[in-house]
Known about the structure:
By secondary structure, the protein is mainly alpha-helical. The chain has 6 helices and 2 strands. Helices cover 71% and strands 4% of the residues.
Amino acid sequence: xxxxGLAIVVSILFAFAIDAWWQSHIEDEREHELLxxxxxxxxxxxxxxxxxxxxxxxxxxxxxxLLKAATSADxxxxxxxxxxxIADLGWWDIQRHFTTGALNSVVFxxxxxxxxxxxxxxxxxxxxxxxxxxxxxxNQDYDFFLNVWMPYLRANGYLPQISNIAAPMPGRxxxxxxxxxxxxxxxxxxxxxxTTDEFQNLLVQKSWIQFDILNGFDEIESRxxxxxxxxxxxx
Length: 235
């Protein structure tokens, strides 16, 4: 009887051990799947950030070129060049440049505990707030366009003339701004407009906004590199 009882206990313990091993094996496989998916998403996000960083750098450069011309003693830019730079500043960016399918599954889908590495788990949990912080910086761009830039141009510029410019998005030549191709009866010089204090103040404000966004992009890219490295070490 003692031997039979001992055999039963051993078999139960063995079954528990097998079940624990199997559960651990399943979790290891799931962790690997998640890590591969996370790595793909973060690398894709990094590529997007770099592309849109080029856009903001180009907008900042157009802004600086126009500000230098506007504040100089002698404006050397042609009317066409002025209009083109004004058109460049009409672009804005509030898109979310992150691929977050795997991240959402981990953080919001209850799978964060599967990630064994403490540092990586903490890093992943913090990413949603980092993405929102960058989004709030980007929102400045659209708010400026909608509530500051366009009201000023409507009151002081000639938008049909600006809308006739067929130009690519700054820093993103594959994205085109189509011309309305209007047969204008008259044109307007914007040279005097850009010399006003109000217009130059707008350019400085635009510059500050781009600086904030670019600084946010730099911080995010550095953090992406850190997260990618942690994932690669786990794989």
